Task: inverse folding
């Protein structure tokens, strides 16, 4: 058995892909190890979403190149989004033996044992979903797992590299999704997160011509698998998120009361340039629907500062939208131009870097205040928390998340990992709730 080490950058989708790769390799004479120094093969699963993500990977490859000089038998494969984007350029890096894109992972065992020669495999597929491959849960052991329900993206947001590096959108057979989740429940898992770039456009058309399955129907079926299984999903798209999904969430107590709904900007001019397909008013209308149908629902978002031509006025619109929605959490970025995207081809990246940083800092400061206010409003309330593991800060505490996706830390009491507990919140910071167990329920 040859030891392999897999390092993952970027989004949850990549974590899920790494587990597919781990299965393919462990079924073919390789075994996972925890440190690159122990490995015969290192796999780096990469992200292209921002330039900074790519730079981190290149720095890591430089380190692996130094390791290879000491041990020439060491092999390195680059997987993921950078593989598709950079192709031969990556292959020319002194560390790199293979470059394998997101739709070519089935070729990996053959490539690694040298039975297949071509070291560059980056063709994208219109159909590959790895539906039949049971991920090896080496990165998400025990309690909470990711389940990919679709791949690729057809949206063409102007700033985004994903459609170019991950290809066309395709949905996975719901039967294979349900089977995978039933296996997870049988293995003791208590939470799944369904993954897709735009889950609202999930659509499975059965070959026998029977009724197509949309996302609300899939969610309903997954929630019905076990009342003990929490269900999360990401990412929703404001232009496609319909009330049917909200009603399905309301009907199932085990679908977590949380929605990640990236807004990107609060300015209509910028949203139009970004090709997002909705206005500020339409976004706020979606938020109003969430609040009406799912009271208390956690709402998080993604925001980009300094997109092409963004003015101070546009930026203020983003801040005012944040205030209007009062997001519980946000992932905030400064715009990073990606080669060949719509924006790179049609617009100038004309907001100076210092201005991007200043705007991003204002966005972060505001969100810190909103997150703190949101958490303060939870103090003295009681929430159901799934115990996920030992707190990083103290061995005596556990951590878990509320349905609304807030991290909660509390003394262990007599609970164990995988329990459902009711927690009374005693205090908070902008990032964490602190509480105490009221009782173990072990039901949702
Ligand atoms: N620059 C900055 N942020 C980006 N994102 C996607 N592309 C870019 C880019 N070129 C952000 C978006 C998206 C999240 C996953 O990453 O906010 O929702
Ligand atoms: Fe995930 Fe996008 Fe990064 Fe690819 S580019 S790993 S899809 S975040």
Result:
């Amino acid at each position: 058995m040859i030891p392999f080490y897999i390092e993952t950058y970027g989004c949850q989708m990549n974590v899920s892909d790494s587990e597919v790769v781990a299965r393919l390799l462990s079924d073919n004479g390789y075994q996972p190890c925890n440190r690159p120094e122990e490995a015969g093969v290192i796999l780096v699963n990469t992200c292209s979403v921002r330039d900074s993500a790519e730079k981190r990977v290149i720095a890591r490859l430089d380190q692996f190149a130094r390791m290879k000089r000491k041990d020439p038998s060491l092999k390195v494969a680059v997987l993921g989004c950078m593989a598709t984007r950079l192709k031969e350029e990556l292959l020319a890096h002194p560390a790199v033996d293979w470059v394998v894109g997101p739709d070519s992972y089935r070729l990996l065992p053959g490539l690694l044992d040298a039975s297949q020669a071509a070291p560059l495999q980056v063709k994208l597929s219109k159909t590959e979903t790895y539906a039949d491959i049971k991920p090896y849960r080496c990165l998400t052991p025990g309690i909470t797992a990711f389940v990919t329900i679709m791949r690729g993206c057809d949206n063409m947001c102007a700033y985004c590299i994903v459609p170019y590096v991950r290809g066309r959108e395709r949905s996975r057979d719901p039967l294979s999704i349900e089977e995978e989740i039933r296996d997870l429940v049988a293995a003791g898992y208590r939470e799944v997160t369904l993954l897709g770039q735009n889950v609202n456009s999930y659509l499975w058309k059965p070959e026998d011509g029977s009724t197509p399955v949309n996302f609300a129907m899939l969610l309903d079926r997954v929630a019905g698998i076990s009342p003990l299984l929490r269900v999360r999903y990401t990412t929703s798209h404001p232009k496609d998120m319909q009330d049917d999904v909200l009603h399905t969430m309301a009907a199932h107590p085990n679908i977590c009361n949380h929605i990640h709904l990236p807004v990107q900007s609060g300015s209509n001019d910028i949203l139009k340039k970004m090709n997002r397909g909705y206005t500020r008013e339409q976004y706020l209308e979606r938020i109003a629907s969430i609040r009406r149908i799912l009271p208390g629902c956690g709402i998080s978002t993604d925001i980009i500062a300094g997109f092409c031509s963004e003015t101070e006025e546009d930026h203020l619109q983003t801040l005012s939208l944040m205030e209007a929605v009062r997001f519980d959490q946000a992932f905030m970025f400064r715009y990073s131009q990606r080669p060949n995207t719509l924006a790179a081809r049609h617009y100038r990246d004309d907001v100076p870097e210092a201005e991007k940083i200043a705007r991003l800092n204002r966005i972060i400061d505001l969100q810190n205040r909103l997150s703190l206010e949101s958490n303060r409003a939870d103090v003295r309330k009681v929430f159901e928390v799934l115990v996920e593991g030992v707190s990083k800060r103290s061995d005596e505490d556990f951590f878990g998340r509320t349905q609304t996706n807030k991290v909660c830390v509390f003394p262990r009491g007599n609970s164990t990992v995988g329990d459902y507990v009711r927690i009374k919140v005693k205090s908070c910071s902008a990032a964490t709730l602190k509480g105490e167990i009221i009782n173990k329920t072990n039901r949702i």
Remarks:
- The longest strand covers residues 382-390.
- The two ends are 42 Å apart (CA to CA).
- The domain at 382-440 is CATH 2.40.50.140 (OB fold (Dihydrolipoamide Acetyltransferase, E2P)).
- The first helix runs from residue 12 to 26.
